[in-house]
Design brief:
With 269 residues, the chain is mostly beta strands. It contains three helices and 23 strands.
Length: 269
């Protein structure tokens, strides 16, 4: 276990001896999670709760050195039992406790693997990660660099990735998806969110969208095999839709897009 530091009353700080490639597992309701570079293993917890000391004291931080795994649980469900009232009084207690959930900042080593389970909390990763897995209802996910797989399932949250090796798998209802530099596979299923991807290496892109627009930018010279359709949206491409284009002898990028009413645009970088 880490040792508590005497800091501001609304914060709790612990330190763990995380090693490269650590597994970070976080469970929250509405608290945001931020992963940064810095003094590796430092965990900072903050809250807006009226009784921060009690609220932060309920958070569980457990590190398994043998498995190199850090688990952080803000224990929202544990706090719900503090209000013994009935009806609206109990409901207000539940809503208030979730609203004043705990924000988490972790200084992670390079190549950390992160798993987040949350209702509406956001994930911001500014450090280089090896894996990202998020299950949420409405939280956003933003990561600067991921040298491995990304898996996100959310209802209305957005997914914003910088450089990523992939594969990337995303299932959303109304959230947008943006990938600035994709070097692997991408699979997106979306109802109304826009999908924008910049592809720099061969792989397989498979996008299914109902009403959101889809824009794919392909690195110049990359061999491409297209299978792009939209029922009522417009389709435009700088690459021939009925064949492959690019440098001979290399593995192609396979691009498949299915849209009902959204526009589809394919262009060269």
């Amino acid at each position: 276990m880490g040792e508590l530091s005497e800091v501001a009353p609304a914060a709790r700080v612990e330190h763990f001896d995380l090693r490269e490639g650590a597994d970070i597992e976080v469970t929250t309701a509405s608290g945001d999670v931020r992963l940064v570079e810095g003094e590796v293993g430092t965990v900072r917890l903050t809250t807006t709760d009226a009784d921060p000391a009690t609220r932060l004291g309920r958070v569980e931080c457990a590190y398994d050195a043998a498995a190199n795994r850090l688990a952080i649980d803000t224990k929202v469900l544990k706090g719900l039992g503090t209000d013994k009232g009935k009806g609206m009084r109990a409901l207000k207690g539940i809503i208030g406790y979730a609203r004043n959930d705990v924000d988490v900042v972790v200084a992670v080593p390079r190549g950390a693997r992160v798993r987040l389970r949350t209702a509406s909390g956001n994930l911001v990763a500014e450090a280089t990660l090896a894996r990202v897995e998020v299950a949420s209802a409405s939280g956003d996910v933003r990561a600067t660099r991921v040298e491995g797989p990304v898996k996100v399932q959310t209802a209305s949250g957005e997914l914003d990735l910088g450089r990523v090796v992939g594969p990337v798998t995303a299932k959303l209802v109304s959230g947008d998806v943006r990938v600035e530099g994709l070097e692997g596979d991408l699979s997106v299923q979306s109802v109304s969110g826009q999908v924008t991807a910049s592809v720099v290496a061969p792989g397989r892109i498979d996008v299914g969208s109902v009403s959101g627009d889809v824009t794919v930018e392909v690195r110049a010279g990359l061999l491409v095999e297209l299978d792009v359709r939209s029922v009522s949206g417009q389709v435009s491409s700088q690459i021939a839709l009925d064949g492959a284009a690019g440098e001979a002898g290399e593995r192609p990028l396979t691009l498949k897009v299915r849209s009902v009413s959204g526009d589809v645009r394919v262009r060269r970088a």
